[in-house]
Amino acid sequence: MTELIWQGKYDENGKRTAPLRVSLPFQTVETINESTMERQRMLDLFSAGRDSDWRNRLIWGDKKYVLPSLLDEFAGKVNLIYIDPPFNVGADFSFTATIADHPESEDEDEETSFIKQSSVIEQKAYRDTWGKGLDSYLLWFYETVVLLRELLADNGSLYVHLDYHIGHYAKTVLDEVFGQDNFKNEIVWKRSLPHNDPKRYGSIHDVILFYTKGENYVFNQIFTEQSEKYKASHYTSKDEDGRVYRLQSLSASGSGPARRFGERVIEPPKGNHWRFSQDRIDQLLAEGRIVFTKNGTPNFKRYLDESKGSALQSIWTDINPVNSQAVERVDYTTQKPEALLERIIKASSDEGDLVLDCFCGSGTSATTAEKLNRRWITCDLLSFEQTISALFPRQIGSG
């Protein structure tokens, strides 16, 4: 297998270097108590199997020390990990950010640019961690995901949010740590409005790499609203009672046995199988929902009023970035929209599950996990004061 090598991956004796595993004690600085209503909601969750002693945790510290310190208590217990690590491996943490004032507009004149200057602690973190450029970044990233995999539950998932600067390198590292078979998707999120990039195509998307720890993982199918144009072009038939429907094939790829359709036994098309069991086919026949084409191929009626929508695909264009007028905006430079985290959390975790984000930034992952009745652990070091001010005004229920 081809291997990506970076400076520091192996020591002078040719032995693979390992992440730092110093376990440090956590010091509780403040505990935020719940309201009576919130406490009752928590008790209801606890009665459904959630630990009654649980407190969500906002940890100040570098993930280099936080993650090893979490292993004793949480190894194999985290259900979902979302990380949004820094993308850039340039000279410092200063960057220019572009904010679209009007999410529906495609006029580049309506965007505002500003420069976020790096703080002293950010500059030191850069020198200590990424002083050797890409090699340092890859070593840093590798050590991070090794520990994250150990924290992840057997049915857990990892989402890594990056962009074009480093995403292709990160995927190679993730393939090595998690295994290529556990790579599920590269999700493309359209994060900004169209604009001009000098002498190249406008860069308007991020990538989110979706990995699982094993074959059996939580995945709750997400559906999106179908457009009126799609409905008009696909749902073109009506029953006598006025119910709108379309005909959908009963076959799907993959071999399978013949099924009985009334008096006839029909083989599926070559290389396909009938998507329903015999009992389900009998039920559809009894309900008058199977229609045969002129050549005798069975289809079934898919009613519009029963449709959940379209299954979510890997290109997400329906979630706008946080613009200057957004209610959730907390003036954090790289803030991600709650709708983005809501989609990920709903898809890859259940109520009461534990969500971890070790680059929490504006705290979007924590606020969204809280609203969706998930437990959470978040940590950050850079601009931590901004993180705290972003989290608690958004009415986090427990600390």
What are its keywords?
single chain; 399 residues; alpha/beta; Rossmann fold; 8-stranded mixed sheet; 4-stranded antiparallel sheet; 10 helices; elongated
Could you give a quick summary of the protein structure above?
The chain is an alpha/beta fold. Helix content is 27%, strand content 24%.
What does this structure look like?
This protein is 27% helix and 24% strand. The chain has 10 helices and 20 strands. The chain is an alpha/beta fold and 399 residues long. The protein has an 8-stranded mixed sheet, with helices on both faces.
Counting DSSP E segments of at least 2 residues, the number of strands comes to 20
| Tally of helical runs | 10
Encode the helix/strand succession as letters: HEHEEEHHEHEEEHEEEEEEHEEEEHEHEH
CATH class of the largest domain: Alpha Beta
Beta fraction of the residues? 15-25%
Structural class: alpha/beta
Task: Give the C-alpha Rg.
Answer: 25 Å
Amino- and carboxy-terminal Cα gap: 45 Å
Report the major sheet.
Answer: 8 strands, mixed
Strand order of the largest sheet: 1-20-19-2-5-7-6-18
CATH architecture of the largest domain: 3-Layer(aba) Sandwich
Q: What do the pLDDT scores average to? A: 82
What shape does the CA trace take?
Answer: elongated
Amount of helix: 25-40%
| Domain module count | 2
- Relevant CATH superfamily of the largest domain: Vaccinia Virus protein VP39
